[in-house]
Amino acid sequence: MHELAVCQSLMGELDQIAAQHPGRRIAVVHIAIGPLSGVEQDLLADAFPIASAGSSAADATLRFQAMPIRVHCPQCGEDSDATSNRLSCPHCGNWRTTLISGDELILQRVEMVASAEPQPTPLRH
Right CATH number for 3-114 from 3.30.2320.80, 3.30.479.30, 1.10.10.60, 3.40.50.1010? Predict the structure, then answer.
């Protein structure tokens, strides 16, 4: 399951972000993921708690935005939606298209909140 390795790499980025914001913890992590990224969204979600354990993102929620598969046709100049098993141009039928989107895995945004500081317990005599 290479999704765990992807999450560990993601944690490197999140740790850098958290270090820039002391006293805050990561609450929500927004990820854009395309169907051609080679990453399974469900497996990534399952691996995230393992990779984030003990970090500033330990209790964070992952939110995914599905990215469409889009191609550009150099023959007719059109940009079009496509499917993973049909990347040809739907306008002219050209099969030599260029992938515009659909293979990305992008850390889009991180939402942070103030860390809950433990309150000191009052001493009783």
Answer: 3.30.2320.80
